[in-house]
Amino acid sequence: MNVLVTGGAGYIGSVMSRILLEKGYDVTCLDRLFFGTDSIKDIADKITLIKDDVRWFKPEILKKVDAVFDLAALSNDPSGELEPQKTLDINYKGRVRVANLAKKYGIKKYVLASTCSVYGFQEGTLTENSDLNPLTTYAKANMMAEKEILPLANKNFSATVLRQATVYGFSYRMRFDLAINGMTLGYYRDGKIPIMRDGKQWRPFVNIKDASRAFIKVLEAEPEVVNGQIFNVGCDEQNIQIFDLARLVAEACNLPFNYEWYGNPDTRSYRVSFNKIKETLNFKPQITIKKGAKNVFDALKEGKLNPDDPRTITVKWYKHLLEMQQFLKDTAIDGVIL
Questions:
Q1: Closest by alpha carbon to 114, among 151, 152, 144, 84?
Q2: How far is it, in rounded angstroms, from Cα 313 to Cα 238?
Q3: Residue pLDDT, tens place only, 145-160
Q4: pLDDT above 80 for 335
Q5: In this structure, is residue 208 part of a structural domain?
Q6: What's the pLDDT at 265?
Q7: Which of 1, 14, 22, 299 is close enough to 39 for a disulfide, judged by CB 3.0 to 4.6 Å?
Q8: The total number of structural domains that make up the chain
């Protein structure tokens, strides 16, 4: 079976692609490669790599595809606000395009990577049936994609939405702009954990390998079990307030609990129920927060991760790319880039 992973060279996609290969699947990776090819260079000969964009790739590539994991997106809230219209074009319209083309070309299963941030700020424990309250362009684009893609589902086309908790853990395209990863980097670099004010906000978490496993659970499930369904991805035990999360990271790194505040009080706070995915797909994350944080901390100590790589802070790298694009335009003479 050939699985197309859009964003397959990204933070989650580069890990997911490897897990798919290990399980015997063929993998096609569609990615703009804004962050280069380092994340997939050791598996380049084992996958089909297509450097392209979900907004305009040639549909013919879908002829040899059996399932789609749609991960391609401008990721996280700060990046989504850089150019909101581009975020909507890619994260909403681009993914709706992928889903429609997948259905047209007879692909049996399509899985959309959404996010629990669509819940925004709400009290209580939220289920897949709870009202949505997206507070950022990134979250709104996910909600819009969900609402337009799920109705495509029919007996011949299985469409599933996975609302992922905040992902953490080691990746081949590392990100240090995610809560647990960023806290771990702060400890490694400065001996202090950065905590976004006021620390009382609730957030659910899931390790990157467990998040990848959830997609494969959907892939391997009977279509009638997952078709047209939304699943929150994570576990109840990893719903946690940010200040308490920082304590766990400190324990994982076996260091004194030193911290520093940053930013304004977070406007997002939500606890999520993961009972549906547990009961329906027998999905239960295998990696704890402490284990995931320790893996990142050890990778930093062992030199497997570069703490100074500018690509690990997504919004900063996108800003760099935008600045370079403008520089090339400004230095072009008669249409020729110097």
A1: 144
A2: 24
A3: 999 999 999 999 999 9
A4: no
A5: yes
A6: 87
A7: 14
A8: 1
Whether 333 has a pLDDT exceeding 60, the answer reads no
Structure tokens at 142: 């996910």
Tell me, yes or no, whether 325 lies in a domain: no
pTM metric for this prediction: 0.94
- Across the chain, where does the E strand assignment appear? 2-6, 26-31, 48-51, 67-70, 109-115, 121-126, 158-164, 166-168, 193-196, 202-207, 230-233, 239-241, 259-262, 269-272, 332-333, 336-337
CATH assignment of the domain containing 18: 3.40.50.720
Range of the domain at 31: 2-318
Taking the C-alpha atoms of residue 251 and residue 46, their distance in angstroms, rounded to an integer, is 38
Domain assignment of residue 205, yes or no? yes
Under the phi-then-psi rule, with left for phi > 0, alpha for psi from -120 to 50, and beta for the rest, what region is 241?
beta
Q: Please, are residues 309 and 189 in contact by the beta-carbon 8 Å criterion?
A: no
Regarding predicted confidence, which is higher, 330 or 156?
A: 156
What secondary structure does DSSP assign to 80-146, as a single string?
HTTSHHHHIIIIIIIHHHHHHHHHHTT-SEEEEEEEGGGG-EEEEEE-TTSPP---SHHHHHHHHHH
Whether 168 maps to a domain, the answer reads yes
